[in-house]
Amino acid sequence: MSGTEPAQRITMLGKPGCHLCDDALRVIERVAADLGVGYAVRDITMASQGERDEYWERIPVTFVDGRPHDFWRVSEKRLRAALE
After folding, report:
1. pLDDT score of 34 more than 50
2. Which CATH number is 66's domain given?
3. pTM of the model
4. Helix 19-35 vs helix 76-83: angle between axes, to the nearest 10 degrees?
Protein backbone atom coordinates (compact mmCIF):
# COMPACT_ATOMS: atom_id res chain seq x y z
CA MET A 1 0.00 0.00 0.00
CA SER A 2 1.30 3.42 -0.89
CA GLY A 3 0.93 6.44 1.34
CA THR A 4 -1.98 7.72 -0.75
CA GLU A 5 -4.21 4.65 -0.41
CA PRO A 6 -6.75 4.61 2.43
CA ALA A 7 -6.39 1.95 5.12
CA GLN A 8 -8.52 -1.09 4.35
CA ARG A 9 -11.15 -1.39 7.05
CA ILE A 10 -14.06 -3.07 5.24
CA THR A 11 -14.06 -6.54 3.71
CA MET A 12 -16.99 -8.11 1.93
CA LEU A 13 -17.19 -11.86 1.44
CA GLY A 14 -19.49 -12.63 -1.47
CA LYS A 15 -19.66 -14.40 -4.80
CA PRO A 16 -20.10 -13.51 -8.46
CA GLY A 17 -23.71 -13.34 -9.64
CA CYS A 18 -25.10 -12.65 -6.16
CA HIS A 19 -27.57 -9.75 -6.35
CA LEU A 20 -27.39 -9.14 -2.60
CA CYS A 21 -23.60 -8.91 -2.94
CA ASP A 22 -23.99 -6.32 -5.71
CA ASP A 23 -26.36 -4.29 -3.52
CA ALA A 24 -24.01 -4.53 -0.53
CA LEU A 25 -21.02 -3.49 -2.61
CA ARG A 26 -22.78 -0.31 -3.75
CA VAL A 27 -23.34 0.67 -0.10
CA ILE A 28 -19.75 -0.23 0.83
CA GLU A 29 -18.32 1.77 -2.07
CA ARG A 30 -20.38 4.83 -1.15
CA VAL A 31 -19.52 4.71 2.56
CA ALA A 32 -15.83 3.97 1.93
CA ALA A 33 -15.56 6.91 -0.47
CA ASP A 34 -17.36 9.27 1.90
CA LEU A 35 -15.23 8.29 4.90
CA GLY A 36 -11.95 7.80 3.07
CA VAL A 37 -11.48 4.16 4.06
CA GLY A 38 -10.38 1.23 1.94
CA TYR A 39 -12.29 -1.94 1.24
CA ALA A 40 -11.72 -5.36 -0.28
CA VAL A 41 -14.03 -7.90 -1.84
CA ARG A 42 -13.30 -11.60 -1.38
CA ASP A 43 -14.89 -14.44 -3.35
CA ILE A 44 -16.31 -17.05 -0.98
CA THR A 45 -15.80 -19.75 -3.62
CA MET A 46 -12.05 -19.16 -3.20
CA ALA A 47 -12.18 -19.00 0.63
CA SER A 48 -11.13 -21.71 3.05
CA GLN A 49 -13.48 -24.60 3.71
CA GLY A 50 -14.03 -23.24 7.22
CA GLU A 51 -15.16 -19.86 5.89
CA ARG A 52 -17.39 -21.51 3.30
CA ASP A 53 -18.98 -23.68 5.99
CA GLU A 54 -19.51 -20.72 8.32
CA TYR A 55 -20.61 -18.01 5.91
CA TRP A 56 -21.98 -19.61 2.70
CA GLU A 57 -25.64 -19.25 3.69
CA ARG A 58 -25.16 -15.67 4.94
CA ILE A 59 -23.42 -13.91 2.04
CA PRO A 60 -22.72 -11.19 1.59
CA VAL A 61 -20.86 -10.97 4.86
CA THR A 62 -19.34 -7.61 5.76
CA PHE A 63 -16.38 -7.37 8.12
CA VAL A 64 -15.15 -4.15 9.74
CA ASP A 65 -11.60 -4.22 11.00
CA GLY A 66 -11.60 -8.02 10.61
CA ARG A 67 -14.72 -8.67 12.68
CA PRO A 68 -18.09 -9.81 11.25
CA HIS A 69 -20.42 -6.83 10.97
CA ASP A 70 -23.47 -7.55 8.76
CA PHE A 71 -24.93 -10.52 6.91
CA TRP A 72 -27.18 -10.62 3.82
CA ARG A 73 -27.75 -6.87 3.64
CA VAL A 74 -25.53 -3.95 4.58
CA SER A 75 -27.08 -1.19 6.64
CA GLU A 76 -25.46 2.05 5.55
CA LYS A 77 -26.25 3.65 8.90
CA ARG A 78 -24.69 0.77 10.90
CA LEU A 79 -21.65 0.64 8.64
CA ARG A 80 -21.01 4.37 8.98
CA ALA A 81 -21.40 4.15 12.77
CA ALA A 82 -18.93 1.26 12.98
CA LEU A 83 -16.33 3.20 11.00
CA GLU A 84 -16.66 6.59 12.67
Report:
1. yes
2. 3.40.30.10
3. 0.88
4. 40
